[in-house]
Amino acid sequence: MNVFESKKTNKSKRFFNLTAAIFAFLLVFNASPANSSPLMKKPEREMTLKASFLLNLTKFIYWPKKRLLLNKRESLVLCFPGEDPFNEILETARKESLLQMNLEIKKHVPNNQMKDCNVLFLTVKEDRRLKQILSEIKGYPVVTVADTDGFAYRGAMVNFVIVDNKIRFKVNRQSMESNPIKLSSEILDLSIMVDEPLKPVMD
N or C end of the chain, less CB within 10 A? Predict the structure, then answer.
């Protein structure tokens, strides 16, 4: 293994070690007596893992200084156009200070207020109005993260996908390069890059 491969491997390990640490906490939380069952169902486990990836991802994103000053522990605003699909998972993570900054969660955010978010999480329920949502935040330092395969080809910046029963993420190169924010090379090294849409999509 050469020096460059070694550096890439170390970056991968750092990202997944952080993910594993957060996931371990969320897994314990979901299996606690206060919750329904110590044996998590597959959909619950998948959402817990996605929550872990989402929280970890924010540590590898660089917003413009005017937008978010991490050293002053300003809030990271995580928005949902509708309901929060993670329910109490992210709320518990927020209370336990798993992030390096405060986490503010906003639900049912109208289109004209999405530009004030740091991260906008998109689910399959945003399928029909995805084009409109992306138009509203165009040019603003908002990271769009989706959990529906195909959204990256339609303009979402980061798209969680399941590959060989593992969560991976695709990154839309054009959305990333046209956005004022920057994704860490640690994220880009682990990403599946998307350049062109698979097929025209009618919105």
Answer: N
pLDDT digit string, tens, across residues 70-111: 444 467 889 999 988 887 777 776 665 555 667 888 999 999
pTM of the model: 0.75
Q: Please give the backbone phi and psi of residue 9, each rounded to the nearest 5 degrees, phi first.
A: -65, -40
Give the pLDDT confidence score for residue 28 in this predicted structure. Answer: 45
- Measured CA to CA, the distance from residue 99 to residue 56 in angstroms comes to 8
Domain boundaries, the chain: 3-194
Helix, coil or strand: residue 169: strand
The segments of the chain whose pLDDT lies below 50 read 1-7, 22, 25-40, 69-73, 199-203
User: If residue 183 lies in a helix (H) or strand (E), which one and from where to where?
Assistant: strand 182-183
Q: What is the distance between the alpha carbons of residues 49 and 54, in angstroms, rounded to a whole number?
A: 9
Give the angle 164-169-172 at the CA atoms, nearest 5°: 135
Tell me the one-letter amino acid at 27: L
What pLDDT is recorded for position 31? 44
List, in sequence order, every residue forming a beta bridge with 143; answer none if it has no partner.
Answer: 119
Closest Cα to residue 98, out of 33, 157, 147, 51? Answer: 51
Architecture of the domain made up of 3-194: 3-Layer(aba) Sandwich (3.40)
